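2024-03-11 09:14:02 INFO worker-7 job=invfold-0412 stage=load source=structure_tokens
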């Protein structure tokens, strides 16, 4: 990556999180269209939280998301927000 650091005010950081989300009972429910739409939802949501998406990948029963975030962000609040927003939008469309 060219710009690995997140600069905000006087601080410079390089914090990354690897988020793995699985379906209930590991049921194989994700289709390729759903994974593509989830990629778009993830990009939009991370942009609102002032984060950078590094990579997103998934299979039929789980999703991996690697992103960079700033130290002031509360990861637990982001994960709760991500789960609620993504599930609501995917249910509406599929």
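2024-03-11 09:14:09 INFO worker-7 stage=emit residues=94
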């Amino acid at each position: 990556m060219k710009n690995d650091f997140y600069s905000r005010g006087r601080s410079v950081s390089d914090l990354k999180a690897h988020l793995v989300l699985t379906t209930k009972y590991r049921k194989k429910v994700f289709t390729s269209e759903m994974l593509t739409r989830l990629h778009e939802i993830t990009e939009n949501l991370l942009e609102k939280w002032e984060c950078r998406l590094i990579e997103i990948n998934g299979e039929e029963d789980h999703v991996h998301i690697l992103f960079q975030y700033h130290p002031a962000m509360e990861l637990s609040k982001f994960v709760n927000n991500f789960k609620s927003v993504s599930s609501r939008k995917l249910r509406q469309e599929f």
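2024-03-11 09:14:09 INFO worker-7 stage=report msg="The longest strand covers residues 15-22."
2024-03-11 09:14:10 INFO worker-7 job finished
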